[in-house]
Predict the structure of DoxX subfamily.
Amino acid sequence: MIQPTRFSTWQTFGLVLMRLLIGWHFLYEGVTKLYSPSWTAKGYLMSATYMQSFFQWMAGDSMISIIDTLNIGALMVVGVCLIIGFKTRFASVIGIGLLLFYFLAHPPFPGFPQGVTEGSYWMINKNLIEAAALLVVFLFPTSTSFGLERLFAKKEIQSSTT
């Protein structure tokens, strides 16, 4: 049973804000890909600089439509779950997995070619930082303080006290 969080108001506010912002980012990425008929992950996967054979297999003609659909669906599910505060721990795990795949395809390791980036990275990039933030969301769930899971937590608490 998930217990309601016991953080200060400001701690809860900060954690909820982080969860909502990450949720918005995931949902936005999924929706823009869904409504862009020419979008595909094929180019990103084919240009992978690490684990090339694995990512090129994913980009193959027999797999790419499945990969594109799973990517869009996972982005949107993670985004919606984080925003509405429902199954946030599950969404965090899925989000971390996606971000680690993105990270591994183009890791900012010394000696690896860097594609189009917004700056010069060394070992750490936005994907890894957002994955770490999702780990915080997983470890410090706030959905029983602000989210749909709050409705279920109240029912569980009421039924356990009667």
In short: The first helix runs from residue 9 to 34. The chain has a mean pLDDT of 88. Residues 12-161 form one domain.
